[in-house]
Amino acid sequence: MSALVPLLVTLPFLGAAVTLIFGRRPRLQVAVSVVTLSLVVVIASVLLATVDQGAPIAVSVGGWPIPIGIVLYVDRLAALLVLVSSIVLIAVLLFSVGQGAADGDQETPVSIFYPSYLILSAGIFTAFVAGDLFNLYVGFEILLVASYVLITLGSTESRIRTGVVYIVVSLVSSILFLSAIAVIYGALGTVNMAQIADRMAELPGEVQMVLHLLLLVAFAIKAAVFPLSFWLPDSYPTAPAPVTAVFAGLLTKVGVYAIIRTETQLFPGSDVNMLLMVIALATMIVGVLGAVAQAELKRILSFTLVSHVGYMIFGLAIATPEAYGATIYYIVHHIIVQTTLFLAVGLVERRAGSTSILRVKGLMRAAPVIAVLYFIPAVNLGGLPPFSGFIGKFALFEAAAEVGTPVMMVLIVGGIVTSLLTLYALMRAWNLAFWREEDDSAETEARIAYLGDAPAAGVETGRRVTSRIMTGATALMVSATVALTVFAGPLLEICMRAGEGLAQPVVITQLNEEAEQ
After folding, report:
1. Count of C-beta atoms within a 10 Å radius of residue 489
2. Are 516 and 60 in contact (CB under 8 A)?
3. Is 252 helix (H, G, I), strand (E, B) or coil?
């Protein structure tokens, strides 16, 4: 099975090259992109089944000895995230195909979009299977290059402006990350994660803490952890709908994944849990308060994205195998649900000509299908039982309650408040955009007048045709959110086993020895 691991990275690169060559044949580009990502789904499924029944897989690319060679590492966590990411990437790709068919590719010109999209996919997969810090850095840089192209598609003033902010913030994060890699290599003579974990004890405690915090800051920027999340709410809403959806669902999770590896593998004995708890609580509360203050659907979702990253940091701060498993489940849930919501809002924008909840009215009667496609993932993200959002949060709260410290109780209360406010923000948007009729009284207008000063509250984009492919892709993702609930038992069991594996990183050293052979 080890021969399949490099294909997770090489297939998207090869697909990007083919789509670039056939830039004037959009149907062939679509076929190549779908086939490429479908093959990744199959490979990731096989690898997940393999590592779930046995040991993780480590591959030294090209047979070069460690630490010279690049090591690709696949455990339950990496395989699961690659599988979920590839499924989401296919669904968003289908949405973009429908959008291109309806708009004549004005929003997402295929000659540029598909190669960039596959390179973005390659960067995501590279980061998830990286066995050394430098290869993880390379994965981030691949993401950066492709995402800058995607976030500025259409070359409008707002997209260029927010794209510049995005690229500057990402470069700062990359510089911090590269600096940490240089110091680690200078101190330990390796960038291989397993060897770093073995040798880290050789360094003084103060040096370990500096390196730890340097990596945390670099990854926290990419994960949009408060107070380093200032860039996200302004960057994501301006991009085309499929780009915003895939960014919201996946890019911040790559940063969270890097934090997970840092905490569980590189510095398992370092105690920064109290710091992580404070950051988690602040991220949850500040993010959701930002969502409540918004009047534009994309900005509401962008702030909820920030707040729910706080749940993932919360799980890491608990630092038990059960908490790790609950965190992994919540990451899977959030990737799928957040992506689905952004796709649904993309449909709202096309049908109503705006995403402002002050302007959009009566969609329940005018577009009942879109109403359902928004409502299901909205209540899921809000954490209503029996949906996966409730299951993930309950698992996190249960893990925190087992620790039982006063700080954990405070975090549980903060998590509950965040969930209720998330539900309030999303259901207020539902009531105003879908349930409110065109002839609603002036009293309703007066109650929401305070939102008039919110950013982009009055923006109109113009109504456009919504193709069946776009609706079908969104419905497919909504079905996936329901499947998270229907199959919550088996999925949660896999996540718990993955959490137990994270709590035992010593196994990775043995895998490095096998990879060298």
Report:
1. 8
2. yes
3. helix
pLDDT tens digits for range 408-424: 999 999 999 999 999 99
Higher pLDDT: 286 or 1? It is: 286
| Averaged confidence pLDDT in the chain | 87
Q: For residue 337, which of 373, 370, 377 has the smallest C-alpha distance?
A: 377
Q: Any bridge partners for residue 356, and if so which?
A: 296
Rg of the chain in Å (alpha carbons): 22
Percent pLDDT > 90 in the chain is: 53
Residues 6+ apart with CB under 8 A from 168: none
**Per residue in 139-159, pLDDT tens?**
999 988 898 888 877 666 777
Using CA atoms, how far residue 351 sits from 120, 345, 355, 467, in Å, is 29, 10, 10, 11
Token look-up 């480590």 returns 58
Per-residue confidence (pLDDT) for residue 11, from 0 to 100: 95
Q: Which of 121-130, 236-245, 446-455 has the lowest mean pLDDT?
A: 446-455
Are the C-beta atoms of residues 421 and 288 closer than 8 Å to each other?
A: yes
> At residue 380, what is the residue type?
N
**Backbone φ and ψ of 209, nearest 5°:** -65, -40
Question: How crowded is the C-beta side of 489, counted as CA atoms within 13 Å?
Answer: 1
Report which of residues 313 and 461 the model is more confident about: 313
For residue 517, count other CB atoms closer than 10 A to its CB: 6
pLDDT at position 281: 95
Tokens representing 495 are: 């996540």
Output the DSSP codes for 436-473.
S-TT--HHHHHHTGGGGGSTTTT---------HHHHHH
CA distance 37 to 19: 13
Residue 440 clears pLDDT 70, i.e. is over it: no
Long-range CB contacts for residues 175-182, cutoff 8 Å, separation at least 24? 176/214, 176/217, 176/218, 176/221, 177/137, 177/140, 177/215, 177/218, 177/219, 178/137, 179/214, 180/133, 180/211, 180/214, 180/215, 180/218, 181/133, 181/134, 181/137
Q: Give the DSSP letter string of 207-226.
A: HHHHHHHHHHHHHHHHHT-T
Residues 452-462 as b/e (b if ≥16 CB within 10 A, e otherwise) read eebebbebeee
Between CA 66 and CA 135 the distance in angstroms is 13
Interatomic CA distance for residues 216 and 276, integer angstroms: 10
Amino acid type, 159: R
* Encoded amino acid at 31, one letter: A
Cα–Cα distance measured from residue 312 to residue 384, given in angstroms and rounded to the nearest whole number: 18
